[in-house]
Design goal:
Layout: H1 3-21, H2 26-54, H3 69-85, H4 96-103, H5 115-127, H6 135-138, H7 156-171, H8 184-198, H9 211-221, E1 227-233, H10 240-247, E2 251-259, H11 262-274, E3 282-286, E4 300-305, H12 338-347, E5 349-360, H13 362-365, H14 369-380, E6 384-389, E7 402-408, E8 416-421, H15 437-449, E9 457-461, H16 472-475, H17 497-525
Parallel strand pairs: 1-2, 1-4, 2-3, 4-5, 6-8
Antiparallel strand pairs: 5-7, 6-7, 8-9
Helix pairs in contact: 1-2, 1-7, 1-8, 2-7, 2-8, 2-11, 4-7, 9-10, 9-15
């Protein structure tokens, strides 16, 4: 698919989404349009899989008579195979294209009222998985799609009309699922998620990380690797960060994530399936990561996260004996859970793994418990590998500058920490700034090669040696504020006071001559001079 075709598809989808936009807020109509797209994906995948099974018999899945004895035999056999392979099942009459056709039918005697049938179908998708391996992955997946909500229309007829219209538009789009080399639907889904995030204000940070930042994080945690056993995001939102990591390597065996928000958790599971991740390959849980972690006992080769900045957490005294926090001697402040997320992630980091986390700049220099934790991570454990300063105003819903902290348990360069100041390398847009491809490449290349560049990057030593005498980071009392290590000071041009004095005197002489000329003109005209 060419870039032009991709843009046309994106615009097409956004126009369809806007069919609902006048009726509800961005985060509300997001749940409907993405849910319908997901239903279309499940239907087309089901239809293609069933047709492949039926090929030898010369039968099409949609043509099977569901009420006949022979039809029931075919359906039961296909259902058993589909639940094993796909993790769910749909009847021929439940397929997206069939429902869209009924909803927009003008045939006499055929009812085009589809709301009740469609709501049952969405429930049936979940029910088809009961008692199977995929049950948890499809549990309540469509719970945010209330087709009887008055937000869709005042009357059932109004609601039916708008839903049928959306289905008809979506039914005309070919997502090219048969072409396994393309991920048209996955890309389109990502595009819509990004569009909804940009229009959702503060809520956007709950479920989406800008693509450019995701790319930086993904490239960092995949440095030197072509395959990953596992990748984990403890605050996974829509799952976009996990999927971005998969684009940077040839293969990821398993995806793990946890998300507190129920709606966003549903979005993450849909996103996984839409991008072709088999239900056995992902394990996304819905719970509070700090209070009730769901992946205890597991370690991961790559960990990435963009947790909620400076969130509150309980600091329950029981956490002082929790393996995630006990060795540090201090808990992160109750009003700033940033380092609690860091500690949680390090606990789950494999010995050969890399983790990268986006945090507000305050984690670099705040005192108290946070300074104590920083010191332990650097001096005692030597896990901190790099600090990367990002530009301000690149995240949805907040304009504050942020940073990326990179940690490794087995560092290739244990003598220093790399500091990168990328805060001035970006493109300005109307509503927010963004990293260009060249900015992303520069950050990643600098990190991977540990390059030093004036006013951009610096390797700061940790321990004393003959060259530095004392540890620079220790000398700064474990304050990681980037300007302490990367000198970005721009000296202003020196001013020649004597030359400036001469210039002022010359201007005064010219001013007096101008005043004399003006006075002579005023005298000729017989008017009073202005001075």
């Amino acid at each position: 698919m060419s870039d032009e075709q991709k843009k046309q598809l994106e615009q097409q989808l956004w126009n369809i989404a806007n069919t609902l936009r006048g009726k509800m807020s961005a985060d509300e109509f997001r749940d409907y349009i993405l849910g319908f797209i997901f239903y279309k994906y499940l239907s087309e995948t089901m239809d293609a899989y069933a047709n492949a099974i039926l090929k030898e018999d010369g039968i099409q899945f949609k043509s099977i008579p569901e009420s006949s004895a022979e039809g029931k035999e075919y359906i039961e056999a296909i259902k058993e195979a589909a639940l094993e392979k796909l993790g769910y099942f749909l009847l021929p009459s439940e397929l997206f294209s069939e429902v869209a056709k009924r909803g927009n039918s003008d045939m006499e005697g055929v009812s085009n009222f589809i709301i009740e049938d469609l709501q049952k179908i969405l429930i049936n998708i979940q029910l088809s998985t009961m008692g199977t391996e995929s049950e948890d992955d499809f549990d309540n997946l469509f719970e945010d799609m209330d087709l009887n909500s008055t937000k869709l229309g005042k009357t059932p007829t109004d609601r039916n009309e708008i839903i049928a219209k959306v289905l008809a538009h979506l039914d005309k789009i070919d997502f090219k699922l048969a072409d396994t080399e393309l991920d048209v639907l996955g890309d389109a889904y990502e595009y819509l998620i990004a569009q909804f995030a940009s229009g959702a204000g503060k809520k956007a940070g709950e479920f989406y990380t800008p693509q450019q930042v995701s790319t930086v994080l993904a490239r960092i945690v995949t440095t030197g690797k072509s395959k990953l056993k596992s990748v984990y995001d403890p605050t996974c939102g829509s799952g976009s960060l996990l999927l971005r990591v998969a684009r940077e390597v040839a293969e990821v065996n398993n995806f793990y994530g946890q998300e507190l928000n129920r709606t966003t958790y549903n979005l993450a599971r849909m996103n996984m399936i839409l991008h072709g991740v088999h239900y056995r390959q992902f394990d996304i849980k819905q719970e509070d990561t700090l209070e009730r972690p769901q992946h205890e006992g597991l370690t991961f080769e790559a960990i990435i996260a963009n947790p909620p900045f400076s969130a509150q957490w309980s600091t329950n005294p029981l956490f002082t004996t929790d393996d995630r926090f006990s060795q540090y001697g201090r808990l992160a402040p109750s009003t700033k859970a940033d380092f609690a997320f860091v500690q949680h992630m390090i606990h789950h980091l494999a010995e050969n793994g890399t983790m990268a986390i986006v945090l507000p700049h305050g984690v670099l220099f705040r005192g108290g418990a946070e300074q104590h934790i920083r010191r332990y991570l650097i001096e005692d454990r030597n896990y901190l590998d790099a600090v990367i300063g990002l530009p301000a105003n690149i995240f949805y819903g907040t304009s504050i500058p942020t940073c990326i902290l990179v940690f490794k348990k087995c560092r290739e360069n244990p003598e220093d920490v790399l500091f990168i100041d990328a805060s001035q390398h970006f493109e300005k847009a109307k509503q927010q700034n963004y990293l260009r491809d060249t900015d992303i490449d520069k950050i990643v290349d600098t990190y991977r090669n540990r390059l030093e560049e004036e006013k951009y990057s610096k390797r700061a030593p940790i321990r004393a040696d003959a060259m530095y005498g004392v540890s620079t980071i220790a000398a700064n009392d474990y304050n990681l504020n980037i300007p302490r290590y990367v000198d970005t000071f721009e000296a202003e041009d020196s001013i020649d006071i004597n030359l400036l004095t001469v210039q002022i005197k010359e201007l005064q002489v010219k001013a007096k001559e101008t005043d004399r000329v003006i006075a002579s003109y005023c005298k000729e005209l017989g008017i009073e001079t202005p001075f």
